[in-house]
Amino acid sequence: MGAGVSAWQLAQAVSKTGQLGVVSGTALAAILARRLQVGDPGGHMRRALGHFPVPGITEKILADYFIPGGKPDHQPFKLTPMPGMRFSPDLLALTVAANFAEVFLAKEGHDGLVGINFLEKIQFPTLPSAFGAMLAGVDYVLMGAGIPRAIPGVLDRFARGEAAELKIDIVGGQPGEEFLSTFDPAAFCGGTAPILKRPHFLGIVASATLAMTLARKSSGQVNGFIVEGETAGGHNAPPRGPLQLSAEGEPLYGPRDVVDLEKIRELGLPFWLAGSYGAVGKLAEALSQGADGIQVGTAFAFCEESGIAPEIKQQVFQLSRAGKLRVFTDPLASPTGFPFKVVQLPGTLSDTKNVPLRKRLCDLGYLRHAYRKADGTPGYRCPAEPVDDYIRKGGTLEETKGRECVCNGLTATIGLPQIKPDNIFDLPLVTAGNEAAHVARFLKPGRNSYTAAEVVQLLLQNVEQPAAAPLEMVMQP
Length: 477
Hints:
17 strands, TIM Barrel, 17 helices, 8-stranded parallel beta barrel, alpha/beta, globular
């Protein structure tokens, strides 16, 4: 869904229906800082931070970012430090606290299950993010966009109060070299690490081969899989084999990209199907194929509780009603190199004809790559940063073509755009699955919105639920 779309309000709403609500763990430090700078409407961030168990951190975060009544509209957001292999103490604390707050609020006031979704491609914040979510009692960790074999073991170590490390992918690394990110709960907590509940780990996969690799070679227990097709929103797995594009410029997927569900079933672990499953009848279809349920994103992305700005939701509904909404699988937009689903909307970064090109700038840094500098130390670069900077750091011109600043585009989508000189706001970049074209079907006659509970109710129609399912049947990423 992006960043802050599946926020705590949405995850809580889904969880209260008896399903698994999942918060997005992407860029939460930056999102928390911006929520505080707009005045923390409703006081939710401050309420959650008031429960943060490590002394002194909440006070420092509020002193750094909270603005009573909110900043003036024309005033830029104060930036958070950019993540890298070594976090500053302030960014480390902000990252842990932000993930704690999101999960705390999602779990507040009910006993339903809550998960958090991370991306393997965003490696730098993973360790403090996972620890913060576990401090709040997160029930599930979901992870895709790569091969997250190390994460189950990380969860094991954090549950026992032990330090963990994560190997960082680095371009140009030499044989035998290892670049590691580390996090020590005891040091962070002032000397004594808490013993925490170990959340279930679900790997997000697009092939049976990847599922088998995770099941057999991970550092700890894998508890199940989300089997995601190429019509799902956000980042998609690249097609297998040489990249071929359609006449419209989208990656072409073929028979080799269809997941072998028989091999998934043979692993003996629970799995959920994702990618265009947010429609009546699709849950029953998934159950008939041996799945434990479905993961639904797009239908929830445009409900009342999601973080997408209300005016964007209304644009989507209008185009969906008219049969004119299009989702483009962009092979270039994301700096990760993964295909990325972009909803085509006027006034957003997808509107290349009517919107001036954004001046390249990397100031959030979540999708930066690590690379080995000549002196053997790590450096950081992003294909969406200024072209001259990227090339100076050893990148190529070809790698910069078509790239968008996904970090700022996604934060703008949730109503937290950065303000540039001359009072120019960063534009949204809206991601959703192919089912966004049909999202208006969730609107009842005479209404311009729908709730998460209404989505769940519709999806569960005519589906006989077992008395004791191993996990909830519908989950939301």
